Amino acid sequence: MPRFALPWNxxxxxxxxxxxxxxxxxxxxxxxAVGSDAGDPLICAPCxxxxxxxxxxxxxxxxxxxxxxxxxxLCAAWPAGLEGIRSAxxxxxxxxxxxxxxxxxxxxxxSEAMALPMRQCCSKRDKVTLIPIPLGPAxxxxxxxxxxxxxxxxxxxxxxxxxxxxxLQRKRETVTQTALTPxxxxxxxxxxxVARVRAPRHPVLVDDVFTTGATLAExxxxxxxxxxxxxxxxxxxxxxxxxxxxxxxxxxxx
Length: 254
Fold this sequence. Notes:
Layout: H1 8-22, H2 45-49, E1 82-90, H3 93-104, H4 110-118, E2 129-132, H5 137-143, H6 147-159, E3 168-170, H7 182-189, E4 193-195, E5 203-210, H8 214-225, E6 231-238, H9 243-250
Parallel strand pairs: 1-6, 2-5, 5-6
Antiparallel strand pairs: 3-4
């Protein structure tokens, strides 16, 4: 370690103190005061309570809420070893604002509040290793950090689970997924990831938002090729997408 480098936990506490100096006791979402007895959240409890959990029943594999009489085809084309993805909340206005703060405005400590509902999506019985979805080098340099990695660290602290940030590498830069159709997303990400070392037996992929699952499916394929026995995943939010629409998109792959 370089002489003046700080261990991650000490660096986190130092930056947290700087955050408090910049924005003392104020919620990033509603701007209301946060009581000192509430710890040190950047997103207050009332705002977190407005995040909507996904309803049951859900597809046991992809976590998409099920509609009576419509079979889930969203995960039909996924690699066989990708066994289950869960999302903590719907990507509504409040959750979207939290993602934007984390991803584009430098508020990486928002991940601590976002990880709280994600913890409920993870099994307490299994010994898992958290693996964040990697960014490409150009985007990582531009942003300064990987939002999935800081989410994984915050979730790992809650679960007492290790985080293996170097497990996956993005082999090539991909265009932003925001405006792409589901088919274009899959094509954009095809073969984009490679495992840098032998994968742990049960890796859990961590990402900020689930839209079509294309990113998680490609990352899982790389881990399975590198020796993982099974792969699961968790995201903070999930874009609302009717199951009937998902069935028409993936029906040709079933």
